[in-house]
């Protein structure tokens, strides 16, 4: 299989690489760049564990061929940290007890950040809609909704 040259900006850093036509963005992030925050969950785009932001829009990286992402900007959970400071949404998830096993957390946080950039003071219905593709098997979602509201307040400050 012939490799395809692409350029990605991952967490603010431009990378040139060769990818196979059938290689997913998730595999590139995890295997090539050791960015393991995006998880392989279901592999069929149903759980949201592989969510990253592409040009500030939540996408399921297990469903995207890396070659189709040429020229795009990708943000993973690892790209949120600024030195030792965590992102306000990450802080809110911790403070509100919205983290259980942590498997879904990176995708939830990135989806929440994308929502708050569009809607700085989201309603519960907007949060529910924004997170509908992110499944958490550990919680009843109430603390996650509280965390998103709290994170939105922190992001506005």
Compact summary:
This protein is α+β, with helices and mostly antiparallel strands. The protein is built from 5 helices and 5 strands; from the N terminus they run ββαβββαααα. The chain has helices at residues 25-32, 88-95, 105-118, 124-130, 142-156; strands spanning 4-10, 13-19, 51-54, 57-60, 73-75.
- Average of pLDDT: 96
Globally, the shape reads globular
Low-confidence stretches: none
In sequence order, what are the helices and strands, one letter per element?
EEHEEEHHHH
What level of helicity do the residues show? 25-40%
Category from helices, strands and their pairing? alpha+beta
- For the secondary structure, the number of strands is 5
User: Multimeric state of these chains?
Assistant: single chain
Strand content: 15-25%
- Give the strand order, joined by hyphens, for the main sheet: 2-1-5-3-4
The total tally of domains equals 2
Rg calc: 15 Å
CATH architecture of the largest domain: Roll
CATH uppermost class of the largest domain: Alpha Beta
Strand count, sense and closure of the main sheet? 5 strands, mixed
Classified in CATH, the superfamily of the largest domain is Beta-grasp domain
Number of helices: 5
What separation lies between the terminal Cα atoms? 50 Å
Annotated CATH topology of the largest domain:
Ubiquitin-like (UB roll)
């Amino acid at each position: 299989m012939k490799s395809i040259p692409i350029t990605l900006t991952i967490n603010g850093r431009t990378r040139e690489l060769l990818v196979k036509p059938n290689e997913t963005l998730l595999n590139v992030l995890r295997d090539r760049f050791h960015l393991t925050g995006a998880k392989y969950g279901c592999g069929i785009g149903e759980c949201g564990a592989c969510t990253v932001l592409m040009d500030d829009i939540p996408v399921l990286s297990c469903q995207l061929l890396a070659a189709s992402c040429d020229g795009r900007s990708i943000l993973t959970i690892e790209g949120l940290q600024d030195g030792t400071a965590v992102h306000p949404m990450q802080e809110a998830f911790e403070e509100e007890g919205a983290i259980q096993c942590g498997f879904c957390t990176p995708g939830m946080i990135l989806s929440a950040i994308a929502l708050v950039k569009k809607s700085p003071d989201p309603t519960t219905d907007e949060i529910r809609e924004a997170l509908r593709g992110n499944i958490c098997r550990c919680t009843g979602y109430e603390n996650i909704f509280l965390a998103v509201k709290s994170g939105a307040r922190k992001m506005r400050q």
